[in-house]
Amino acid sequence: MSPTDERNTLPTREHEPVNRGPAPAALRPSPARAAEVTGWKAYGGTLLIVAGCTAIAALMDRHFDPANLTMIYLLGVVVSAIAFGRGPAVLAAVLSVAVFDFAFVPPRFTLRVSDTQYLVTFGVMLVVAIVIGTLTAWLREQRAWAALREQRTAELHRLSRDLQMQAETERTRSALLSSVSHDLRTPLAAITGAATSLRDGSRTLSEATREELADTIAEEALRLNRLIGNLLDMTRLESGTLSPRKEWYSLEEVVGAALSRLEPALQDRVVRSNLPDDLPLVPLDGVLFEQVVWNLVENASKYTPAGGSIDISAGFHGGELRFDVADRGPGIGPGDERRLFEKFYRGANASGLPGVGLGLSICEAIVRAHGGTIEAANRAGGGAVFTVWLPLEGVPAAAPARLPEEEPARIGT
Amino acid sequence: MSGPALQTAPTAVLLIEDEAPIRKFLRAALEGQGYTVVETATGQDGLTQAAMRVPDLVLLDLGLPDVDGFEIVRRIREWSGLPIIVLTARGQDGDKVRALDAGADDYVTKPFSMPELLARMRVALRHRAQAAADNGNGVIEIDRLRMDLAGHEVTLGGAEVQLTPIEFRLLATLARYAGRVLTHDFLLREVWGPSAVGQHHYLRVYMAQLRRKIEPDPARPRFLLTELGVGYRLKDG
């Protein structure tokens, strides 16, 4: 890894001085330093350790040879090195040598040395102190760097995961785009073809052909409009900018509006709606819920042969409104019950039928925005049934049954 | 405003729309139907043209870049009752209702079909003519539904339909403006009075009752049409 890479992921870089980027070497001590007990505390601690060693050595002095007492001081040096780092360790070594010489090496209570052997002892103690101090300091740095590396690895891992997710979104988006652009182009191709035929062949085409071409243009333009509407709704529902404006609605009215808008697409399929007369008003966004009804019935009609029937029913169960749209088509493929509501997913039986796989996703998004649920199942006796559950809360204020002023005398004036 | 003396002159339409392709096809289609068309791309110019030329009808796009369409309706209504039909985009329910409540006669949502627009225009022009003749309390017949507003009598296929006073007042209001969309608040004000404005569910209850009495299949109304998010419309006779 190059030094610049290190800089980019170094967690302490926010605290770096602003002046000109520091040299890579300058970065190295920073993590170790951060973990160290610094300043006078470390050196004070070292003094205490040496004093402690001297006390132990004084107790042992009567029974042991002075050379053995150096071991106690060595231990003190090692402890200082581990606890406080290289500087305090060297201080501990120098102090130990001095105190040991002064207190235990004959002639006692002078810094003079009678036996030159002790000079070797002093030398070894100093070297050991420096080596151990350096080693521990190095170990501490390693530990700090290891922690840093671990952090960096975690960061890299996160980054790669983010990148992967991004790539996945990108893939979905391009799949979406290619699917959508195909579905946008098909009606556009039909419209362009029909319109240019009409323009160039106004004399040669028969009346019937001209009418057929004009119908094609109108129908395909409507299809295009629906697709764009669906895409727009989906985007707005997902971004949360399309939130339901609930009012007390009569389900019958919302179903009626959807059916009248669907009329041309239904052709000679029969819609049998079985809505109980005593169905109370339901709190919903009429414009959005009409979309749900429209999409469910339109979906059912795609799987219903000419002359076949689609059944709409509703009822109350446990404080919830249940709304069903059922057909006698091929039903739902195994495992498709949930997937049908995924965006751009098209059921196993959908091949050859127009559509992009957005209608049911929109239904689900709208129903969920109402606090309800939607589910798909196979219908007893064949076909599919889509069920919407909507929660009901409260009752609307009753309309005044009497007119405010005079009775209908006002009418006709 | 066009008086009886101008009846032989072609109906003049002022088209205020910023999108050139829409202006182009509307001009072609309207002229093909015998209308004369004056077009303008901005709201400011539209207001000037409306005052200068006094057309028989205004087609107004609600999505103009310079002036809010609602503002144009309001300013025209300050001095004239000439029919205004607004052209809206999908998802502009709120704007549409505002424009209607400000006095626009009706609306079509883009993309609209030409027969749909022509039908709206005919209804708006007819209502202006009726208003001028102070006529609108007579007998209205739509298919098998016959409403005698002065006589308080409603029959369906010859059989009398029993209506409560509120139901009758609601149906009579819709009938007086047959073919025209009426917003929820307009209907509430007409039937229950100003204090009922905003109580849209009153209408839902009474429309359901009315439909049960006059519609063969209340779930697929033939007469009492719903304009979701906007209001109601009685089918044009």
Question: What this model shows, in words?
Answer:
The complex is a heterodimer of chains A (413) and B (237). Chain A contains twelve helices and seven strands. Chain A is α+β, with helices and mostly antiparallel strands and 413 residues long. In chain A, α5 (66-84) runs parallel beside α7 (117-200). The longest helix of chain A is centred in the middle third of the chain and has 84 residues, at 117-200. With 237 residues, chain B is of the alpha/beta class. Helices cover 41% and strands 22% of the residues of chain B. Chain B has eight helices and twelve strands. Chain B has helices at residues 20-32, 43-53, 69-77, 93-101, 114-132, 165-176, 184-191, 200-214, and strands spanning 12-16, 36-40, 57-61, 84-89, 106-110, 139-142, 145-148, 153-156, 159-160, 181-183, 224-227, 231-234. Chain B has a five-stranded parallel β-sheet with strand order 2-1-3-4-5, with helices on both faces. A four-stranded antiparallel β-sheet of chain B has the order 6-7-8-9, covered by helices on one side. In chain B, β6 and β7 form a beta hairpin. The radius of gyration of chain B is 18 Å and the shape is globular. The interface between A and B is large, with 41 and 38 residues.
Provide a short characterization of the protein structure.
The complex is a heterodimer of chains A (413) and B (237). Helix content of chain A is 58%, strand content 10%. Chain A has 413 residues and is α+β, with helices and mostly antiparallel strands.
* Regions with little confidence, pLDDT below 50 for 5+ residues of chain A: 1-35, 406-413
Quaternary organization: heterodimer
Chain pair with largest interface: A-B, 41 and 38 residues
Q: The biggest beta sheet of chain A, please?
A: 5 strands, mixed
* SSE succession of chain B: EHEHEHEHEHEEEEHEHHEE
* Structural domain tally of chain B: 2
* Shape descriptor of chain B: globular
Annotation field: number of helices of chain A: 12
Distance between the termini of chain B: 25 Å
Number of strands of chain A: 7
Using the 3D structure, state the CATH architecture of the largest domain in chain B.
3-Layer(aba) Sandwich
Strand order of the largest sheet of chain B: 2-1-3-4-5
Q: Number of helical segments of chain B?
A: 8
- Report, as a whole number of angstroms, the end-to-end distance of chain A: 92 Å
How many extended strands of chain B?
12
Which class best fits the helix and strand makeup of chain B?
Answer: alpha/beta
Class per helix and strand makeup of chain A: alpha+beta
Cα-atom Rg of chain B, whole angstroms?
A: 18 Å
**Rg of chain A from C-alpha positions?**
43 Å
